[in-house]
Amino acid sequence: MKTIDELLAEGVDGKRVFVRADLNVPLAEGVITDDGRIRAVLPTVKALADAGAKVVVASHLGRPKGAPDPAFSLLPAAERLAELLGAPVAFAQDTVGPAAHEAVNGLQPGQVAVIENLRFNAGETSKDDTERGEFADQLAALADVYVGDGFGAVHRKHASVYDLPAKLPHYAGYLIATEVGVLKKLTEDVKRPYTVILGGAKVSDKLAVIDELLGKADRILIGGGMAYTFLKAQGHEVGISLLQEDQIPTVTEYMERAAASGVELVLPVDVLVSTDFPDLKTKAPADFKTVDADQIPADMEGLDIGPKSRELFAEKIADAETVFWNGPVGVAEHPDYAGGTAAVARALLNCDGFTVVGGGDSAAAVRNLGFDENAFGHISTGGGASLEYLEGKTLPGLAALEN
Ligand SMILES: Nc1ncnc2c1ncn2[C@@H]1O[C@H](COP(=O)(O)OP(=O)(O)O)[C@@H](O)[C@H]1O
Ligand SMILES: O=C(OP(=O)(O)O)[C@H](O)COP(=O)(O)O
What we know:
The protein contains 16 helices and 17 strands. By secondary structure, the protein is α/β, with parallel strands linked by helices. The N and C termini lie close together (8 Å). The structure holds adenosine-5'-diphosphate (ADP) and 1,3-bisphosphoglyceric acid. Its EC number is 2.7.2.3.
């Protein structure tokens, strides 16, 4: 993989450099609640701008449906990038249309532009190679060189991640180099016990990684929206909790395999439940109660792990030599459901092993709950990406940079 340092040595003065970043930051009412992913790409953007490149920054944000949707505009991220750079950043209101070309053509060496959300275009995420290739051609028209630095999206076979680097000279940015360097340690020389904690809401994506993790981890703790498919598979009522019904046979097989191979698969023993999802805008106090995990009422959903589960999880983390955590174990954006996630974060800090936290929302939760990000072994900007890397999978965005 050629790195940005090689590109800088070759010289970028006046060249248009396309930086595929992951600026998929959490937003509340259009306000960024954690800018970690923007700060993470600054070294790359700054180095290119300082060397006289015309820097074109691109990213997805959220999951719009292949067409413009103002709720998912990258404008707030572009504005924050400008603040962090201490320099103006041009913003194009389309991705590959006239506004993007105008913004890029208007750049002087050392200046930066952000183009609108890549996923406003159906070609970005298309499963059809030709459609993705055509969109990548349109992106390629905006640049002379490609720098891949969106670690959080390298597991996606998307046009800007996978197809575009094949069309331009391509290099890995500083963030990708750092992330891969740290995560590599977890694939090569894992000190045991190795505890993995999985939570969050991208249940179908993340259930799949358990298949591989069963052969790698000693303990797998399941919280967040992930837990309810397991509880249901054990025959419990889960009410209106997040559920991946079609995955019940799969998780049943996981539980059998874990038992047979001596991997501890740990589920919550109690949960906080409510009839309503909390209001994340007003953060108004929630009406919830704590129940045992096999007593979830039919009209309620589980929104955090309960006090007994927090103790149990902390115990399974305490003596671990290696810990990997992806996914808040509750709806940590709301103070009433952040207790489980805070307990897991504390347990990581109390453990002497090497601790890695991965994922946009997990990293945001840790910082927003007031934990010192430097106290963890590593905070990865990618959740799904780091999990798939640890599985040993070939990640499209890394393979494309290697070719
Ligand atoms: N029990 C739950 N029910 C619904 N959503 C949940 C639950 N627990 C956690 N979440 C949500 O999961 C989201 C984060 O999931 P995900 O994107 O998978 O994590 P990450 O970005 O760290 O990889 C958060 O917005 C959080 O509110
Ligand atoms: O937020 C992200 O992943 P993560 O939640 O696994 O950390 C990345 O920006 C990828 O987004 P996607 O899962 O919509 O492709």
